[in-house]
Amino acid sequence: MLDGATTHAVLPAMDMERATRFYTEKVGAQQRAAVEGATFFSVGDSEFSIYPTPNSNRGGHTQMGLRVPDCRAVAAELRSRGVEFEEYDFPGLKTVDGVADIGGGGSAAWFKDSEGNIIGVVQVPI
Known about the structure:
By secondary structure, the protein is an alpha+beta fold. It has helices at about 15-25, 70-80; strands spanning about 10-15, 30-35, 40-45, 45-50, 60-65, 90, 95, 100-105, 105-110, 120-125. It is globular.
């Protein structure tokens, strides 16, 4: 039934213009369309959208993950564009310079977008 389906993340934004600038200028996403109530972007082979809401910072968890071939290189590039990565120190997960080793040769890093959404960047060896 879902053969051929793709994942599409939908993120809340308190300020659509600010969020659009963040994703296009800092993350390097391509804006694909803007319609009433949503703006659509693409990164690599993935798409996501933002929508306006006064309640955008309620997540507290990863709201979108971006799978990449080299997490550390992507984190360094995003840092050079002004993205600030989170530091975590939990049982079983500790970041060093914003990047955590997640086992099996994988790594992950997290940042907050302009609206407070937590975005993950992950490299997995599968």
